[in-house]
Queue: 2 jobs
Job 1
Amino acid sequence: MKQMNSKNLNKQITAAGILGIVITVILAVISTFSYRGLKHTQEQEAKQYLNEVVSQYKNAIGIKIDGNLQTLRALSTFIEKSEDISREQILAHLRSESRQNDFLRMGYITADGTGYFIDTDGTEHYDVNVGSESFVRKALTGEDSVSDTMTDRFADAKINCYSVPVYQDGA
């Protein structure tokens, strides 16, 4: 009888061990699937959040660009409406305007592509040939433009340049 109880006990211990292993395997499989599901859900939520943030920044940048172009169009219209305005008078207006906006530099470019620029700190750059720049060529053909990001030729920085046409005497 002791031998039978011993065999029964061994069977029960073996069955409990197998049951424990099976439960452990089942829990491991469930945990793995749960982890993968949660990970996938978190990744999707993170992607959605980043897309929303990018969209908001894109809209904010678009609004900022439009506002900057409107500022330049208003200044252009002011120059156009000022009869017989000289380059020095234009530069005086740019000096005044550059202290009231977020531009790093403002300038006036003649039809031959020669630029006259005034930095917000008052530094002036005259007789700069910028006629080969695509944003300048667009303005000279009557089109508002924003450059691609480029290296500032006067400072070690990355910038974008805005340009709008300025008409004088109807041209």
Job 2
Amino acid sequence: MKKQITNKHIYEILCEIRDLLKPEISGVEDKKTISKTDFLSQKNVYMWSDFKNWIANEAAEIIQPYPKPLKKFILPKNMTDDEIRKNVGSDTFTIDEAMGIVYRIVREQRNGEDGEFLNNGYVNIFYVKLGDGRVVAVKVSWNADLREWFLFASDLDAGRWYDGLSVFSRS
């Protein structure tokens, strides 16, 4: 009997090949800083194009974990970016601070462990001011199937974020 190869099988094989080609950054949890090059090539981080173009490519060459406590707000209902920013505060992070927050997630919850950031597939949201003055939503979520953190960025819009998601701002 022939085994049928599905798109899921092909996808899993491609992910394994991708992981074999990426270097493992040993001891990342022990490092105080990391080079942008090393950060971008980690196995357990996948950057979607808007995050890579707007945030990662514009960040400093050396990334430091964001050192300050973050204020966490769990959405009590579906809310737009405007509604969230009215409730949580309209403060924004810089690009370098955003990379520091993401680096902190990777250090503290490297393999999707429980911690400050949601690891159940829901997104963690924070707002970043880009060099051109635009404010974007940065979304970070743990993908348990692929065992990696997904990093997204998107323009603010009228779409609603689901209740239960976490939003971070300065404390």
